[in-house]
Design goal:
The chain is an alpha+beta fold. It contains 7 helices and 5 strands; from the N terminus they run H-E-H-H-E-E-H-H-E-E-H-H. A hairpin with a 4-residue loop joins strand 2 and strand 3. Helix content is 42%, strand content 18%. The longest helix is centred in the N-terminal third of the chain and has 14 residues. It has a 5-stranded mixed beta sheet. The chain starts with a helix and ends in a 7-residue tail after the last helix.
């Protein structure tokens, strides 16, 4: 019984440490924005994600905000992941603003600081082999 309880605790610990905690290939790309607190840079990042919503959706990108003081966007991130472990996993200094683009293969594709150059993010994604295949198979819903 003790072994079973220990095994359950170990498995539960591992399930909340990494992002996302499933599969070899993820169904989406991610931009994780790390910051010390919810400040003007976080607010600007969140506003810009709304302004770039169509382009991000077309590229299967979800955005997450994680701050050292516990603010997360979306709010469920705090309940699903060990935030401190995410800072460590991605080697982020919790006193700095750091954003990371993660591909569908789980690899880090781009890293930057406080401000986001969304054109660079989109160009980086569009140059990925998996994205090249996606673009052949469907039309850009954001073009007019």
């Amino acid at each position: 019984m003790k072994r079973l309880l220990t095994l359950c605790l170990v498995l539960a610990t591992f399930s909340v440490q990494g992002y996302p905690g499933y599969g070899k290939h993820w169904p989406h790309r991610s931009v994780i924005y790390f910051a010390p607190s919810q400040d003007e840079h976080v607010n600007q990042f969140e506003l810009e994600t709304l302004l770039n919503d169509c382009a991000l959706d077309a590229r299967d990108v979800i955005t997450l905000v994680i701050t050292q003081d516990g603010y997360t966007q979306p709010a469920w991130v705090e309940q699903q992941f060990d935030l401190g472990m995410l800072f460590n996993l991605y080697r982020v200094d919790p006193t700095q603003h750091t954003a990371i683009l993660i591909g569908k293969d789980g690899g880090e594709k781009l890293r930057w600081g406080k401000t986001t150059d969304w054109n660079e993010v989109k160009q980086t994604i569009d140059s990925m082999p998996m994205r090249q295949k996606e673009m052949k198979n469907k039309q850009d819903p954001c073009s007019i």
